[in-house]
C-alpha cells in the first residue's frame, strides 16, 4: 500500500482515485476548483473519441471505460444512461477504428440525399456535474478524501507517489508546451422527450450534435484549438440552435437553460499517461491531455494509473 496524492478533481483525477482506493492504496485528491467549475462539468458528455486518430491505447482505454459506464448505467448509477446514437455521414461510410466493442454498431441507409449513410450505435451519456459528486462520494466511502487546494507546483503535493490529473493546468505545472486549450461552446436545454443522440460531424458550418442525458439535452458544439476566451457569444448559440433544430426538430419544443463554454485539455500527440520523476526524486504518474474525450477514456486510463502507481 502506498500513500498517493492525486492532483486534480475532474473526471480523470476522481476515477483514478476510486481505482487506487479499490486497489488498497491511501488516497488524497487535491483540487483547485469545486466540481462544477472543472472542464469535466461542462462536458456533453457522451462516449465518443472526438477528433482522435486510430490508436491502440485509446481503443483499449475507450473500450474499458465503455464497459464500466455501461455496467454503471445498468446498476442505476445517477446520471449514467445508455443512448442509441445516430451519426449522419457525408463522406466515407467505412467502419471507424473505434467501433470495435461498441454495442449495436452498424451502417444504415442515408436518411436524405445530402448524406451518404448513417452509423448507429449505443453508448453511455453522463450527466457530468452530478456524476462528479457521485465519484467524490465513492472516494470518501472507500476511505479517501477530497481537499480544495491549489498547488503552485507538483512537488508541493505530499505522498509517496503523485498522480498528476490537472488537465489543461499541466501546461504550466509539468511544464508541457504540447498542452493547449480547445474551446467548446454548447447549449443546455430542457428535454422535450428526445431519447436518441444525433451527430453531423461534417455539417458545412461545423460539426453539430444533440445528446439527451438523464435530465437535459446538450446541443453543440464548437471545437476550436488554441481559443481560450470564454465570454458568451450569442451568434454561436444561435447557430448551434438553428442547425441542431434542423437536424432534430423536437428540439424546437425545448427551453434553453444555459449556454456554456469550456476549454478541453488538448495535447499534441494525444493524452500523456506515463510514469516520470519529480525534481525531488518521487515518482509521478501523469494522466492529462484527454482533449475532447476525457469521459470516453476515463475508467480505462484510471486502470492504467493503478498499474503505473
Ligand atoms: C464543450 C465540451 C464538450 C465535451 N464533451 C465531451 C464528451 O461528449 N465526451 C467526452 O468524453 N469528453 C468531452 N469533453 C472533454 C472532457 O470534458 C475533458 O476531456 C475532461 O473533462 C478532462 O478531464 P480532466 O479531469 O483531465 O480535467 P478537468 O476537468 O479540467 O480537471 C482538472 C482538475 O485539476 C485541478 N487543478 C488544476 N490546476 C491545479 C492546481 N494547480 N492545483 C490543484 N488542482 C489543480 C482542477 O481544479 C480540476 O479539479 C468535452 C469538453 C467540452 C469543453
From TrEMBL:
Cofactor requirements of the protein: FAD
> EC number(s) of the enzyme?
1.4.3.3
- FAD dependent oxidoreductase domain boundaries: 3-306
Which InterPro entries does the protein's record reference? DAO, FAD-dep_OxRdtase
UniProt keywords, alphabetically: FAD, Flavoprotein, Oxidoreductase
Identify the enzyme class: oxidoreductase
The record's section on Pfam families has: DAO
- Reactions catalysed: a D-alpha-amino acid + O2 + H2O = a 2-oxocarboxylate + H2O2 + NH4(+)
One Gene Ontology term of the molecular function aspect: D-amino-acid oxidase activity
Q: Which domain of life is it from?
A: Bacteria
The answer to whether the entry has keyword Oxidoreductase is yes
Q: Which family does it belong to?
A: Belongs to the DAMOX/DASOX family.
Q: What is this protein called?
A: D-amino-acid oxidase
Organism of origin: Kineosporia succinea
